[in-house]
Write a structure and sequence with these properties.
Blueprint lengths: L1 H24 L9 H31 L4 H25 L3 H7 E3 L12 E3 L2 E2 L3 E3 L3 E2 L2 E4 L23 E3 L2 E3 L2 E2 L3 E3 L4 E2 L2 E4 L3 E3 L2 E2 L3 E3 L5 E2 L2 E4 L2 E3 L2 E2 L2 E3 L4 E2 L2 E8 L2 E2 L2 E4 L4 E2 L2 E11 L1 E3 L16 E3 L2 H5 L11 E7 L2 E8 L19 E5 L11 E9 L1 E5 L3 E2 L3 E2 L1 E7 L6 E4 L9 E8 L7 E6 L8 E7 L2 E5 L2 E3 L2 E7 L2 E8 L4 H35 L1
Parallel strand pairs: 1-7, 2-8, 3-9, 4-10, 5-11, 6-12, 8-13, 9-14, 10-15, 11-16, 12-17, 13-18, 14-19, 15-20, 16-21, 17-22, 18-22, 19-23, 20-24, 21-25, 22-26, 23-27, 27-28, 29-32
Antiparallel strand pairs: 29-30, 31-32, 33-36, 34-35, 36-39, 37-38, 38-44, 39-43, 40-41, 40-44, 42-43
Helix pairs in contact: 1-2, 1-3, 2-3
Amino acid sequence: MVSALDIMDDMLDETIDLLKYISSQFVSDTQIADDLYQKTKEELFTSIGDMSQSLSVFMNDMNESGNLIMDDMQSLSDQLFKVMNLMLAIISDLNIDNEDLENLVEDVSAEDIDNSTEGKVSNSRNLGSIEGDINVGGIAGAMSLELKFDPEDDLKFGVGTTSNTVFQTRAIISSSINEGNVISKKNNAGGIVGSMDLGYIKDCIGAGPIESLDGNYIGGIAGISSSPIVSSYAKCSLQGGNYIGGIAGFGKEIKDCYTLIKVNESRACVGAIAGDIDKVNKIKGNYFVNDVIHGIDSISYAEKAEPIDYEALISIESLPSIFLEFQLTFIAEEEIIKTIDFKYGESISENELPEIPLKDGYYGKWEDLNISNLTFDAEIRAVYVPYVTILESEEKRNEVLPIILVEGKFTDDDILTLIKEDAYSSEEDILEQWNVVIPDDGEDSHIIRYYPDEGKGRLGVYIANNGVWKKTDAEWDGKYLVFEIQGSNILFRVIDGGINLGWIWAAAIAAAVLILIVIAVMAGNKHRKHRNVKSG
């Protein structure tokens, strides 16, 4: 009998220790059936099995010993079932699913915002470039509750924790501004925060470019948000896939916000306030300036996401100064060449554009930009293109080969002008006379390649110089006659030289010399024969 009672006493002590252990080790985790929990549960049921077996032994002992201790046995049995019921209740409480977690955590971020000091980021400013894979923001990557096991024990139930415990959480970002580039590879890129599951954003400004390279949910303040965004502003460019919004790519509660944005690239669900919103939402008092994009997913809503003109926007007293400041930035080879400030709707002249730095073998031009009625900031980059080294005329000989080719350093926009002129001379046989206008490429001289009519005789090239025709040196290169000219506007004519008298005189002289040599040789032979006769 003593041994059975001892067993029961030990079992109760072990049960109490087990309950304390379960209570101290409980951690809120979305992965409920983790290894630790399964192990604890298995130990619990093993203990219950041991208790059942011990109770059976105890009952056998009781049958052998009679009814002397039936009252004690009944008390022990009642206590045992109380312990078992308590265990089962604990097991039931531990089985928390994802929906119950919303009841376990209470977001108190919206309470006493101005006086709160914990869980709060305030007066923060980012000027740097922020890049990441997912959940990328200028101030914070994500505002959410981490329910995984925390190695620093941020979330831990104490021994006295009950199943009705509720955690309060606070995450506030206020009076902060992002002016840097935010780039994500995948989803959720925002000027202030990438992903916002909880918390509160107030009086923040998104002023830097936001881009997702291969993802969705891009916003001037938040990429995606399920929590309040209040009294915030966005003046930035946005680029990505689906769900692009001036305040949030996807939002639930957006109040009293203002935007002036530019969307460089997008697919579906685009809005000046939000790309799209939750079915259960609180959208109120948001305004934007944009002639192309509407408020929420291509639709504007009065007093919720409503368009206003620029004059109405700048009349708002609390409006940040960024809405009054616009700038063109000219960049060449990643170096800022010049910045030009302008006012909304203003135009600038081409004379104000800076010169593009030289690059050997290339010419530079600024990216295409309409510099009239400017309404948004822009970065204009210099584009370097290899020189066009041969410029050809539109006029062709027999509709095949260009009549004129000019060597130089030309651009794709340069055009060679060729004008055929009538010419007459009583002394010379003028075949053609051309006026050539060469685009200015900064060179003083150029090589001209002229393709004449085939079947002509010896040709001469003459260039007009202050009304005087002067012959210039020309050489054949294939079918083209090549010569050099000075300046960019020339008049030249081609003369048919007929038979070349120089060659005729040269041939005559050569023939005369050959005849004299033959005569001399013959005379020498005759003189030798005469001497031989005498000696004989």
